[in-house]
Predict the structure of Signaling pathway modulator ZraP.
Amino acid sequence: MTSKRGILLTLLASLIVNGALIGLFVGHRMAGEDRRAMHGMTRQLLRDEPSQFAEPMRNAMEAHRSEMRNAFRQMRSARRDMFKILKMPEVTTDELNQALAQIREAEMNLKKVSHQVLAEVLPQMPVEQRLHFAKADMMRRHGGDAHGGERPKAGRL
């Protein structure tokens, strides 16, 4: 009887440990998209910036992490809704307009949070660095780099 009880306790402990590990794995995978997106955004913002600017930017982004995650989730949800509509056999103009409006709203919310971070960090920088940041940001948005060269557009060689 004792060996059966020991086996049952071992199996129960194994089930509990495996359940906890599976829960941790699933939780990590589900939160991973937001984490990777925020990391990519941080990397893009700080790619050409001096190291003295990088730390305040990271700190400001860390302070707004929950707002940024919510903004990313809202954006992802709006895009998924758009794809659901596009997959439907018949689509109306009103449905598309509503889905596009949700995407616009999500983009504006994400920009708002990003601008809050910049509003906290940029005043701490000297004028030359602020101008350098603005120029680099403008070049990134329009396909060039901060040094005046052209980056290849997506899908082109």
Notes: The helical segments are 2-46, 51-63, 65-87, 93-121, 127-141. Residues 55-123 form one domain. The CA atoms of residues 8 and 148 lie 69 Å apart.
